[in-house]
UniProtKB/TrEMBL annotation:
Transmembrane segments: none annotated. Pfam families: CP_ATPgrasp_2. This is Circularly permuted ATP-grasp type 2 domain-containing protein. Coiled coil: none annotated. SUPFAM superfamilies: Glutathione synthetase ATP-binding domain-like. Residues 72-448 form the Circularly permuted ATP-grasp type domain. InterPro entries: ATP-dep_Glu-Cys_Ligase-2 (IPR051680), CP_ATPgrasp_2 (IPR025841), UCP005522 (IPR016450).
């Protein structure tokens, strides 16, 4: 039986919600042919700007344009205020958790999170033990995936604490909408997002290890063959910082330097888009050609800041996610403002038994999975697929969690047949510096373009929308 979804424009099929009234009126007036024409213009614009992503293993289409829906997703000011407060609370708890597990480990001694789930986690990095990064900030840039189920309830679907991607699409989506639909903007007071890179640069500079002078910040990329390289070059350009690869940097006397035409220049902050394992061949994978030999020594000496910190991947773990309500209460002494999706940890025998009995109702995910891969959506899978997944669960239950199939909210979307509801999620970006937390209003809305699909990932055929937060 299909789940009944909350529609953000019309609730559960009732009259139009206030935030969408002007958009609904506009959609009723604009000719369908014009919408189709603007959609074509948007695609040409994105191709001209080179906004692409790569799908690993796809030999037929190495570079793709992410489908862009020209109908914006709208949040009222009061909705965003509550959401932003919950996001800040959650990221404060995540930073406290990382500081603790790499320090005194009080949460383990208190029995809140099992020791094996932390110390045995592949993303836990012993090299970070007893090391405190500048400002005690571990997660400088967080992407928190949020879904909505009714007018008042948002759930956090997952926490992205290593190197969350997608902010370039948030910024480019806004620019495209302003070019294509200035008359629609004229009907709304939309909070701007173009200050994101200024806020990001301020956050990064605030955690520089040296107090004297203006810090030198660089963005470190694995190179042009990485799936997110467009975003790396886009952000470096917007930040006004150098885009570097590992070969552009070297370490001398436990300090990091950048090779320039004017000679070596010391680097203070590295916004790195390279996974931990490839950062330093002397500390992690010796076969890495992407990293900088000696980088970890410079980092541990306090002479350079890495954003995000090494070892933050454990906060991405979906099994750790299941403990977030307890983690938040343990460190902050507060009740979570944003709910977790109810989660069964398949490593626990009772939970595993329940999941195996209810596979046709649940979503099963790999604890280290991403991009919509390695996932079972029980209600949409056939019996053979469910049986195969059951064997995986029995063989390696520690690798999986399960959640109920949520009726993700829908937002009006332009499809071939006209305007129709499609399921969406939201990835707001939370910036944490040594001085304060910064959140630009909105985020990246991802949309499942296939009718009935709940999978919004671009690698699985999803698209994106501009997200409008209305002014007061």
């Amino acid at each position: 039986m299909a789940l009944r979804a909350f529609d953000e424009m019309s609730s559960f099929g009732d009259r139009c919600r206030p935030a969408y009234e002007r958009l609904q009126a506009w959609l009723g007036q604009v000719p369908r042919e014009l919408l189709a024409q603007r959609r074509t213009e948007a695609e040409l614009l994105f191709r001209r700007m080179g906004i692409t992503f790569a799908v690993y293993g796809d030999t037929e289409a190495e570079e793709r344009i992410i489908p862009f829906d020209i109908v914006p997703r709208i949040l009222a000011a009061e909705e965003w205020t509550l959401l932003a407060a919950g996001l800040e609370q959650r990221v404060r708890a995540l930073n406290a958790f990382l500081k603790d597990i790499y320090g005194p480990r009080e949460i383990i001694r208190a029995g809140v999170v099992p020791e094996a789930m932390i110390l045995g986690n592949p993303f836990f990095k012993p090299e970070m033990t007893q090391f405190r990064p500048a400002g005690d900030v571990y997660i400088h840039i967080a992407g928190i995936d949020v879904v909505r189920v009714d007018a008042d309830t948002f759930y956090v679907l997952e926490d992205n604490a290593r190197a969350p991607s997608g902010v370039s699409y948030m910024l480019e989506n806004r620019e495209a909408m302003m070019r294509l639909f200035p008359e629609l903007f004229g009907r709304h007071r939309v909070a701007p997002v173009d200050g994101y890179t200024d806020e990001l640069l301020a956050s990064l500079r605030s955690v520089a290890p040296r107090a004297a002078g203006e810090p030198t910040v660089v963005l470190m990329t694995p190179g042009p063959y990485n799936s997110a390289y467009y975003e790396h070059s886009f952000l470096a350009d917007r930040l006004g910082v150098e885009l570097v690869e590992g070969r552009d940097l070297f370490v001398k006397d436990d300090c990091v330097f950048m090779r320039t035409t004017e000679g070596p220049k010391r680097v203070d902050v590295i916004y790195r888009r390279i996974d931990d394992e490839f950062l330093d061949p002397l500390a992690f994978r010796p076969d890495s050609m992407l990293g900088v030999p000696g980088l970890m020594l410079a980092y541990q000496a306090g002479n350079v800041t890495l954003a995000n910190a090494v070892g933050t991947g454990i906060a991405d773990d979906k099994a750790i996610y299941s403990y977030m309500p307890e983690i938040l209460t343990f460190y902050l002494g507060e009740e979570p403002m944003l709910k977790n999706v109810p989660t069964w940890r398949c490593r626990e025998p009772q939970a595993l038994a329940y999941v195996l009995e209810h596979l046709d109702e649940l979503v099963v995910k790999e604890v280290h999975g991403s991009g919509g891969y390695g996932m079972l959506i029980g209600p949409h899978a056939d019996q053979a697929t469910r049986d195969t997944f059951a064997e995986k669960l029995k063989h390696a239950p520690d690798h999986f969690i399960a959640q109920p199939t949520l009726a993700l909210s829908t937002s009006p979307t332009l499809v071939e047949s006209g305007i129709a509801p499609r399921h969406v999620d939201l990835r707001p970006f939370v910036l944490t510096g040594a001085d304060r937390v910064r959140i630009v209003p909105g985020g990246l809305t991802r949309v499942a373009l296939k009718e009935g699909s709940l999978v919004v990932n671009s690698s699985q055929g999803g698209g994106t929308k501009d997200t409008w937060v209305l002014g007061d």
